[in-house]
Design brief:
There is one protein chain. α3 (36-46) runs parallel beside α4, α9 crosses α10 and α14 runs antiparallel to α17. This protein has 23 helices and eleven strands. 60% of the residues lie in helices and 11% in strands.
Amino acid sequence: MKAMIVDDEYYIREGLKRSSLWNELAIEVAGEAEDGASAWSAYLECQPDIMLLDINIPDYNGIELAKRIRGHSADTQIIFLTGYDEFQWVKEAVSLQASDYLLKPVVREELSKALSKAKLQAQLREDRNQREDLLRRQVHDFSKAAHEQWLIDLVQQRRPLDQSLELLASSGVHLDPAEEYAVLCCEVDDFSSFFEGASASDRQLSQYAYRKLVDEALEAYPRVYSFGEVAGRIILLVRLGNGHNQLSEMAEAVRSAVLKYLKLTVSIGISHPVEGLERTFNAYHEAIRAMEYKAIVGGGQIIPYSSTVVTMTHNNRMLDKELYLLSEIRAGNEENVDRILREWTDNLRTMAWNDMRLVASQLVMFVIRLLKEAQIPNKPVVHENPLVGLSDCRTIDELIQFLTEYLTEVGRVIRLSKECRSHKVIEQAKGWIREHLAEDLSLVKLAEHLNMSPKYLSSRFKQATNETFADFTTQIRFERAKALLADPEMKILDIAAKVGFTDTNYFSVAFKKHIGMTPTEYRKKYL
């Protein structure tokens, strides 16, 4: 608890400050002043619980200062210090709800009683304030819980629409039943497994942090009403007006905030816009079904419901081309991807707009899944939210351009990844050959070491080095032999053994065939 001493006499202030009563009563002297103006500034700065206030001080007297304090706070305990000739002020001091008033010079026992009384009153006021704050929070929490429950009742049609609107209006939420609405379902991916083993309080705190982040991320969108449904899931009811294009922005704001501050991914389903509150029931279930498509496209995605509807006009010819296109994308064959994509989009142009969007959405969802399963190290961001990008297309040309750019880029990323992995495998193969030159080398043994089929390894090796396995191995053997021949102390018999030849004569014949001279001639020429 903090106290402040105001008196224009230095020695009185010092005497009061040095009293042992402060320690005994656990009160800190947090400030002092000698006049009304400086006292008011100091009071605002340190906000003391108790004021020892001399009535007769310069600038404006203690009574005037007390009036200012009372205008600021009714909780500060004021103990007036007065002389005999200032007793006419006592009546006004009483009207200012002074805790006590002491005659100068102040006696220790009287000061002790006055401070103890002021401290007790301050504590009682603090306890009262805390109880009032608790009650206000409980009322607020109850109101918020009721408000959320009424929103749930509205979108799930648990009550008649008129009754839901009346209840919501009583909590300050006024909805136009004829307006246009949409629903977003935001769910933390793997929420239960992420917090597995956590205490109930930790889970509750995480849920609160998630909810708080979502609300803060949407502060710029005042026509959004959020409510929790199950752990890790928040539903957003959006009054659209002219804000159709803001649905994706809202979803991205939520997704980015949760990822940045909680390091968690969120999948968000977006419903179709619907006319009238009575249809929010349909929008609510659309948003949930769209969000559940994360099982197909992976977590952390924004998924419009329009991209999840399976079309019945998806004919076999188109399906065959899609499967072929997907296989070429998976293989990283950019040229084939480009050719098949042109044929596929030509067929796509012949379809009705809605069917075209649905077919394109299905393909993009398969590609998202393919990209997720490709196990690309340091995976680049091909497109932050391809389903949202697709749903934002408003013309056939925009849709075709988006698909072409997106699918071409995915094919390029997969090709580069395969080339990188292939390069690493070939370098491993070369290293293994160099380490085992003294052995009976074979393509089969190398393939077993790399966990690959000999046929595939042979093809990749020739493609990467422009040499067959046998040609490369032979070249490395004789390169190593030439290096060893530089040592005049080393016998040709030993050199032959180190590069995989058990017969010295055969080594000499093979060496001459590839180098143009025998090992002995080579040594004489270059040493």
